[in-house]
Records
---
Amino acid sequence: HVQLVESGGGSVQVGGSLRLSCVASGDTISRYCMGWFRLIPDKEREGVAGIESDGSTSYADSVKGRFTISRDNAKNTLYLQLNSLKSEDTAVYYCARGDWNVGFDYWGQGTQVTVS
């Protein structure tokens, strides 16, 4: 059974930075596609960034150039570096394991990011 636990959220001023972490247990994340998503109130869940098993990355246009996804295989941990934060980045951020075509089957509990 895979468990994903996010941390690192918080309140930050516009222009600030945060680093989100997603610690995985029960399986090795480097074998899978991993993604970061966010849920903004009254909006649909948005895929923010993804990293494939081969290390290739992808980003939503809204965060390209500001956010960076990475993973530490030794720590079995996924990261999302958030820079140049904007108020519209305020959301609950989730990590998940899966596939962009088939779907994501394991999700963390989420971590709140508030930018003001």
---
Amino acid sequence: QVQLVESGGSLVQAGESLRLSCATSETNVRLHDMAWYRQAPGKYREFVAIMTSRGATRYADAVKGRSTISRDNAKNTVFLQMSSLESKDTAVYYCHRPLWDYWGQGTQVTVSS
């Protein structure tokens, strides 16, 4: 059983930046694809970003150019750096490991305009 624990969510002003963290119980996070999703109130959960085991990245159009996914292999932690936040970025952000479909509990990001 793999545990994913997100942190870093907060209430911020539009235009500010935020870094989310996903601490995993993985012993070697670099062996797995790792992703971020988000779910806004009343909406379906949507893809945000993914980093493959090889280090390739892909982003949703909604965050492309404003977000960076990265990982710290030594700490088995995945990050999502977001800048120029907008009110439409308000959501619960979830860390996800596609292999065996593991999810974290989510961290709330609220962007105030």
---
Amino acid sequence: QVRLVESGGGLVQPGGSLRLSCAASGFIFSMYAMAWHRQAPGKQRELVALIDSGRNTNYVDSVKGRFTISRDNAKSTVYLQMNSLKPEDTAVYYCNHANCWGQGTQVTVSS
């Protein structure tokens, strides 16, 4: 049974940083791509960043140069380092593998 558990969200001021973590279990983590999505109030869920099994990465344009996705296969964990946060980054952030989703972690960027 696939399980994804996010952590690391919170309230941060504009320009600040947060690191999200997603601990995965129930599948051979190293073999698969992992992704972070986010959903802001009143908006559709969007793909933020993806990392494949070869550690190739892809980002939505709005976060390029500010966010970094990485993975630790030994810990079956994927991370999202978020720097220079903006109010428009406020959303619930979800970890994703195939058609499985975590419970989400709230990120709020506000002064």
